[in-house]
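Translate structure to sequence.
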């Protein structure tokens, strides 16, 4: 039987603690650095973000992912035993071994599933849903849980004011299921890309097998994110616009016909520039970065979940998700909800 893939339920979860821009400004003064609420709002659009207490077992990456997954399953009318496959998109895993997907499997009791992580940084959720779709189209799996979750506060250099203002923690999830090929509510089109030549724009030099964390490297914060923000900004606008337009083109769909745009939530100015290039008014754009900052692989599923829950995204409407991230990875996916 010819088949297609459809998103049937979404969920999201965040840690309790809110960290405002003023909280960050106060924190930075301890290191003799300055920022202020208005600068952060004007340059990024972020007002506050959530930060995990990693001493609290309920706020680890896989625990946030599990909460988001359970909500998504409930909304899809599915039980953990129904899941064939788990795809967990994260660049801040609970542990390097085993995968966070396996920790999540244990937590939600998805006994029948096989589980794997994807590290495509902020593009991880889109890479995950495209991968899920391909496993469904090949007939290998029928019901797949895709999670995008991060505890980035552990990877942020809290002494670098261009980085620590941007990121936050959270988790989003979606259930992707097999439907007949002609089904109207389905994934319609997608486009993925990577450019390893741009890997130095956002990276963590130490802590992998390539560079051990020694006391000297620890003191230099080489185990934390290093970012060229200005350059990344330009590349982000270009790649997000390109991915969105190529995904629409594959379907011969003019942007104006699109109901909703859910872009990666890195910076409001990036989102506005992309919306303008693609030809989308801002009232079609879903934003949650004002309250959560950049949660990497979790930005898109959490923003999507919020807009579905509050009734903005209605059944039968078209939604374009669009992301870029460290790698440099990028991708967009269009579906009918
Ligand atoms: O998922 C991908 C993750 N990363 C991104 O998407 C990052 C994309 N880039 C950005 O969002 C922006 O480049 C930033 C928000 C990181 C920076 O904004 P910008 O408008 O590009 O600022 P800038 O780097 O050009 O810096 C302008 C000034 C500089 O001072 P001088 O050299 O003009 O005196 C910075 O030192 O702003 C200063 N600055 C700050 N001032 C107050 C940088 N960070 C801060 C800060 N508070 N937090």
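Result:
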């Amino acid at each position: 039987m010819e088949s297609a893939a459809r998103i049937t339920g979404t969920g999201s979860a965040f840690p309790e603690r809110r960290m405002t821009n003023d909280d960050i400004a106060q924190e930075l003064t301890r290191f003799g650095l300055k920022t202020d609420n208005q600068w952060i709002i004007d340059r990024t659009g972020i007002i506050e973000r959530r930060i995990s207490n990693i001493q609290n077992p309920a706020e680890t990456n896989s625990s946030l992912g599990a909460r988001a997954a359970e909500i998504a399953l409930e909304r899809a009318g599915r039980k953990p035993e129904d899941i064939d496959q788990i795809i967990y998109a994260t660049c801040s895993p609970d542990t390097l071994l085993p995968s966070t997907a396996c920790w999540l499997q244990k937590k939600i009791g998805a006994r029948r599933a096989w589980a794997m992580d994807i590290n495509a940084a902020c593009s991880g959720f889109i890479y995950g849903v495209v991968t899920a779709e391909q496993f469904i189209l090949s007939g290998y799996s029928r019901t797949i849980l895709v999670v995008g979750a991060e505890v980035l506060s552990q990877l942020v250099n809290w002494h670098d004011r261009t980085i620590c203002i941007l990121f936050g923690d959270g988790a989003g999830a979606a259930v992707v299921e097999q439907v007949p090929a002609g089904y109207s509510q389905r994934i319609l089109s997608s486009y993925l890309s990577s450019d390893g030549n741009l890997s130095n724009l956002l990276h963590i030099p130490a802590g992998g097998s390539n560079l051990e964390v020694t006391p000297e490297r620890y003191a230099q914060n080489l185990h934390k994110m290093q970012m060229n923000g200005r350059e990344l900004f330009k590349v982000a606008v270009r790649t997000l616009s390109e991915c969105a337009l190529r995904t629409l083109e594959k379907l011969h769909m003019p942007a104006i016909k699109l109901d909703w745009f859910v872009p990666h939530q890195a910076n409001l100015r990036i989102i506005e520039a992309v919306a303008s290039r693609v030809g989308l008014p801002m009232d079609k754009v879903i934003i949650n970065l004002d309250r959560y900052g950049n949660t990497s692989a979790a930005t898109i599923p959490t923003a999507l979940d919020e807009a579905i829950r509050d009734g903005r995204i209605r059944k039968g409407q078209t939604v374009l998700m669009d992301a870029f991230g460290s790698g440099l990875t990028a991708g967009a996916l269009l579906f009918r909800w």
